[in-house]
Amino acid sequence: MVHSKAHTLARQIGEHLLKEGLVYFTQRHDLLFAKIESFLLPAFEMETRVNSEAKELLEKYEREMDKSQIDSHKMFLMIKKKLIRERHLILQSDPTLTPDDKINHLAHLIQNGLDRDEDVDMKGDGTALLSTIKHVLTMEMQQEEAIRDLVKKRLSSYKKTILEGTDEWDLLYQKTLAEMLNKKGLGS
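Structure (tokenized):
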């Protein structure tokens, strides 16, 4: 899912930059898209690693939580938030960041990567390039958020209550999200 998301975003951003004449690329366009994807992937993969680490920590204290009747989902979010804060990370799921902060972070990762690349000739001072990248990211995030809301709504409608953050919830969430993304033509 992480790779397909980065791939889709990279392609959309690259196509917009080329169409608007903001970059000139000396090679095939699919190589430009791959470069943009390589700037996005580490940020997306970090998110996955932090989620996995938070789940591992949650599992270590599962018995104590059961005894104390602590909500595992709330504890998962607390652990994840602590990991983010301790490591000074900027993750897309960080609730303390505004959507604009997240978009700015990704846009600057892409702009800096393109600026350092010898095969990419950026036109102008970079303001229009950055603006275009932010626009594409904003549109994509809004569309993805709407789909995620639909997925959560569907999962909450199940007769059996499934707690967010549990393995069962994650599995159903990922499966349902993939189905909905594929229906909308946004999947891998």
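Residues 2-139 form one domain. The beta strands are 23-25, 120-122.
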